[in-house]
Amino acid sequence: MTARTIAPATGRLGVLLPGLGAVASTVIAGVLQARQSGSTPIGSLSQMAHIRLGERVEDRNPLIKDFVPLATLDDLVFGAWDPISPNALEAARTAGVLEERDIAAISADLEGVVAMDAVFDKDWVSRLEGTRVKTGATKLDLAQALMDDIERFRVDNECDRLVMVWCASTEAYRDVTEVHQTVEAFEAGLAANDPMISPSQIYAYAAIMSGVPYANGAPNLSCDLPCMTELAERNGVPIGGKDFKTGQTLMKTILAPGLKARMLGLNGWFSTNILGNRDGEVLDNPENFRSKEVSKLGVLDTILQPDAYPELYSDISHVVRINYYPPRGDNKEGWDNIDIFGWMGYPMQIKIDFLCRDSILAAPLVLDLALFFDLAARAGENGVQEWLSFYFKAPMTARPDLLPEHDIFIQQLKLKNTLREWMGEEPVTHSEA
Ligand SMILES: NC(=O)c1ccc[n+]([C@@H]2O[C@H](COP(=O)([O-])OP(=O)(O)OC[C@H]3O[C@@H](n4cnc5c(N)ncnc54)[C@H](O)[C@@H]3O)[C@@H](O)[C@H]2O)c1
After folding, report:
1. Average of pLDDT values for 39-53?
2. pTM of the model
3. Per-residue pLDDT tens for 388-407?
4. Which of 146, 231, 223 is closest to 185 using CA atoms?
């Protein structure tokens, strides 16, 4: 197998984060701490996972970061936009994810990540009052202002390359409309202030126009639109999303493939959560929750394939709830009640009570996405990066007629085999001696 030509990861990589809230401040803090004190970036596949190469007997098992040319943690420089948080220090303190002792050790560096004024519109996130907000006569002017920010950041920070990962609040659920069908229609819509164009879509457009890979960590429509795929392919920019796969959905996509592997049936999966952070407050609004609900509900059908296994999975009751409960802050509690059945149809139940920390689970995903999207750009990739489905609750597909892959183990295999192929190694099928 011939290796791809991949440009080296020389110089600095700018990581641009729309949304300087709990997730963004936690990923920045973790990278700063790892750089300063050498702490282990737990949860990051790019930093910690090994990859087997060749046949088992060859005993080649390097770390991924030693196998593929990734930017290192020392190469990263962070930028952000936020309508509320002034800098990463205040964002971390407001979020309440990290202990003060962890924050204090890196407080000056955190304070140095100053938020740029956001493209923000209350119509899309009604629970927030933004004060540090860009103004412009049209949405095209706002897109241009973001492109100017991107260019300024690139020059001021002497970045060789940039990536953008959307870490801002979930926007209200709206459908794809005519304005999203082509690049031409979208640009006309920007100039005409089309109400169906959201802030996250303006960021995605500005990133792709600037040649910056774009990943969407929230469930709202942003780059999963025909116009964005067209623009990304035309400009040679990798894109992907959406919605970081953490917490309850992570557990679901670990467990459901196992149940199916054993041909155990499923009657119902009831999932409920309490969380009390700003994300929870935004999701307390039904329009914003709708974006999350759609993204969370999709996973079981594609994993379990009810059409292929009607006796086991054709009649599943799948319910997802999120309740805003301030005392919990970022420390979410998610309960799952899973009604399964086995031999001769006998019913059984599985209960999960996951006391998780949302941003602690999401932060390493942001790091990996930034590093892998940068790698994809240097490897000459453009358009939707399906091989990074591993990170998303509702993975985008390269073509609209393809179903997304939700099974975390298949996603992991796909990710690793992509890296093997790019580096000129045979894919591992686990069928050899
Ligand atoms: N933490 C997780 O496990 C997880 C998992 C999947 C998805 N997500 C998504 O990631 C996003 C971030 O989560 P969080 O917990 O950090 O939320 P958060 O509320 O702490 O932070 C979001 C930040 O985005 C800012 N913001 C809102 N609109 C903006 C805009 N137009 N431009 C720039 N900034 C804007 C807000 O002011 C806020 O500071 C949310 O959409 C959430 O649904 C999080």
Report:
1. 97
2. 0.96
3. 999 999 999 998 899 899 99
4. 231
Ligand 1 binding pocket, CB closer than 6 Å: 18-23, 81-85, 95, 118-120, 125, 128, 167-170, 199, 217-218, 243-244, 246-247, 277-279, 358-359, 361-362
Q: Which atom of ligand 1 is nearest to the CA of 220?
A: 41
Domains of the chain, with CATH numbers?
A: 12-244+360-422 (3.40.50.720), 247-357 (3.30.360.10)
Between the alpha carbon of residue 137 and those of residues 18, 141, 200, 245, 376, the distances in Å are: 21, 7, 18, 37, 35
Arithmetic mean of pLDDT, 191-219: 98
Q: How far is the CA of 254 from the centre of ligand 1 (A)?
A: 25
The amino acid occupying position 366 is V
Contact 213, 375 (CB under 8 A): no
Place of tokens 């019913």: 347
pLDDT at 433: 56
Residues 245-267 have pLDDT tens digits of 998 899 999 999 999 999 999 99
CA distance readout (Å), 409 to 56, 257, 404, 405, 412: 19, 8, 14, 10, 5
How far is residue 49's CA from residue 55's CA, in Å, rounded to a whole number? 18
List C-alpha distances in Å: 30 to 39, 42, 91, 391. 8, 9, 14, 18
Nearest atom in ligand 1 to 246's CA: 3
Q: How far is the CA of 168 from the centre of ligand 1 (A)?
A: 3
DSSP secondary structure letter of residue 338: E
- Average pLDDT value for the chain: 95
Whole-number Å distance, alpha carbon 22 to ligand 1 midpoint, is: 7
Question: Rounded CA gap, 313 and 291, in Å?
Answer: 25
Q: What pLDDT is recorded for position 35? A: 96
- Specify the pLDDT at position 45: 98
Residue 202 to residue 145: CA distance in whole angstroms: 10
- pLDDT tens digits, one per residue of 163-183: 999 999 999 999 999 999 999
The ligand 1 atom nearest the CA atom of 81? 33
